[in-house]
Specification:
Strand order of the largest sheet: 1-2-6-5
Largest sheet: 4 strands, antiparallel
CATH class: Alpha Beta
Number of helices: 8
Helix content: 25-40%
Number of strands: 6
Order of helices and strands: HHEHHHEEEHEHEH
Bound molecules: 3-iodo-tyrosine
CATH superfamily: NADH Oxidase
Length: about 230
């Protein structure tokens, strides 16, 4: 047996307290109320955010379950003005192409209530752009490839935790998906085994920012229970 095929040693499951059902209800109700307040925003303040907050949120994201625990993601945290400017320029070029040519009339109609367009000033205003990359395969130190499993699902889960962690800290985010996003590999010098997954804009909301009055589906609409 080689090292790579050996089973992990095991450790006792740490810190999984039995709260009791009443306390569980209370904890979940509080958690729900907190995430219910999360809104995607499109106008950010330029107020600085200490880097350690982003680092801790990223460590939370990295706890996501992943296929064969291969953690097939990479996050590039961009705070430099010059790199943000390059990203904005490239993203806006793709977005102009999208809004003017590529998007179907149906897609444009779906976006209309949100009022988005190809102008993305927040890509320079917000203190952080976190480029999330999905690794199609990994690389060992000696250069050999390691196949990754469910990288899309895994990276989606990690990104969800990242967004929730930042929200928990009081920071707002925008999940931005300029398409195609290949320019992120070039600007950020990422290798070809990494595919841009999304660009997460993070920071404080701009003063007085308003958001569309959207509604979330009710539990009955988005979940069903099979009890027999
Ligand atoms: N990427 C474009 C268009 C866009 C697409 C979807 I789906 C959205 O929910 C929002 C925007 C943009 O960022 O403007």
């Amino acid at each position: 047996m080689t090292d790579e095929t050996m089973r992990y040693p095991t450790v006792a499951l740490a810190d999984y307290p039995d709260y009791g059902v009443e306390e569980m209800r209370h904890r979940l109700a509080e958690f729900h109320a907190e995430v219910e307040r999360r809104r995607t925003i499109r106008e950010f303040s330029d107020r600085p955010v200490p880097r350690d907050l982003i680092e801790t949120a990223l460590k939370a994201a990295n706890t996501a379950p992943s296929g064969a625990n291969l953690q097939p993601w990479h996050f590039v945290v961009v705070s430099g003005a010059e790199t943000k400017r390059k990203i904005r320029q490239a993203a806006e070029a793709e977005e102009r192409e999208f809004y003017e040519h590529r998007a179907s009339p149906e897609w444009l109609a779906a976006l209309e209530p949100l009022g988005t367009d190809s102008n993305k000033p927040f890509l320079e205003t917000a203190p952080y752009l976190i480029a999330v990359f999905l690794q199609k395969y990994g690389r060992l130190d000696d250069g050999r490839k390691v196949k990754h499993y469910y990288p899309t699902e895994s990276t989606g889960l990690a990104t969800g935790i990242l967004i929730t962690a930042l929200h928990h800290a009081g920071l707002a985010t925008l999940t931005h998906t300029p398409s195609p996003m290949k320019f992120l590999n070039e600007i950020l010098g990422r290798p070809s085994n990494e595919r841009p997954f999304l660009l997460l804009v993070a920071g404080y909301p701009a003063d007085g920012v308003r958001v569309p009055d959207i509604r979330r589906k009710s539990l009955r609409e988005f979940a069903s229970f099979v009890e027999d």
